[in-house]
Amino acid sequence: MTEEQRWSRKRKRGRRHKQKKTLSSPDGATRTTTKSLHTSASDSAASNKSNPKSSFLDKMKARLLGGHFRMINEKLYTCTGDEALEYFKEDPALFNVYHAGYQEQMSHWPEQPNDIIIKWIKDHSPSLVVADFGSGDARLARSVKNKVFSIDLVSNDPSVIACDMSNTPLETSSIDVAVFCLSLMGINFPNFLKEAHRVLKSHGWLLIAEVKSRFDPSTGGADPNKFVKAICELGFSCQSKDFSNKMFLLFYFKKKEKLDSKKQIEWPELKPCLYKRR
Ligand SMILES: C[S@@+](CC[C@H](N)C(=O)[O-])C[C@H]1O[C@@H](n2cnc3c(N)ncnc32)[C@H](O)[C@@H]1O
């Protein structure tokens, strides 16, 4: 074995060891992190100048992370909420990988739907109680004065309730605003909306932001009118729609009546949002 091969093996062993390092999260669980993958990418920017090999390795690392993100993303769009909950229970570190990739994708969007929803909440009363279904890093809760229940599959923050959002611990008729910001991911998304209907007070708001391509019938996406019709049949009235953004659609509904569980609602299929390799 040449000196060069020995050196390369040593570096690979070191990196594997770093990736396996475990950290304690705020909820007390011990989990494997991918932190070293991210930090080492920035740490090595300086060494890239002197060592072209590390620039190549960083590219490979980024590619690996991107691939991992796309795999988790596809899983979330093609399974039910309870399957997604089990998936992350088995390996909570995947949640961090997903969110690192998601943030990277979102950094290319000219406008964030979360910002529009945050502005909407700020323009209304701070006394409104909000439930953020699929809250991610709970940025919404941190950005407004309102009481916000943040709900997601994994809780990396004590304020986030970890559960499948089709079955939350929220009390019936206790919420003024239910938010779904790019979070209607599971194939049983109608159950997420039924849960929102249960927890919302009468005349409570349902705000939905979803990826535009999921609603493009010319490429296999859902007809947005059928989506609105199904939600109205669930017991909401559509107050307004905003299709002006290039990347996402916004829907604003109000709860109007009790859910008739016997009613057969025809839900359109929402195609998965699969991200391209960059
Ligand atoms: C695309 S991210 C959006 C995060 C955040 N709303 C934002 O706009 O930045 C979707 C989030 O929904 C969560 N999610 C998907 N299905 C869920 C379910 N069944 N129950 C709870 N959270 C879910 C995912 O874990 C993820 O954090």
UniProtKB/TrEMBL annotation:
A single Pfam family, by name? Methyltransf_8
Q: Where is this region: Disordered?
A: 1-54
Tell me where on the tree of life, at the top rank, the source sits: Eukaryota
Enumerate composition-biased segments (Polar residues): 22-39
Keyword Methyltransferase among record annotations? yes
InterPro entries per record: RRP8, RRP8_N, SAM-dependent_MTases_sf
Q: Could you tell me the keywords of this UniProt record?
A: Chromatin regulator, Methyltransferase, Nucleus, Repressor, rRNA processing, S-adenosyl-L-methionine, Transcription, Transcription regulation, Transferase
EC code: 2.1.1.-
Q: Which GO terms describe its biological process?
A: chromatin organization; methylation; rRNA processing
Q: Which GO terms describe its molecular function?
A: methyltransferase activity
The principal localisation class reads nucleus
Query: Which CDD domains has this protein been placed in?
Result: AdoMet_MTases
> According to its UniProt entry, what is the function of this protein?
Probable methyltransferase required to silence rDNA.
Q: Which family does it belong to?
A: Belongs to the methyltransferase superfamily. RRP8 family.
Q: What is this protein called?
A: Ribosomal RNA-processing protein 8
Which organism was this protein described from? Answer: Olea europaea subsp. europaea
* Biological classification of the source: Eukaryota, Viridiplantae, Streptophyta, Embryophyta, Tracheophyta
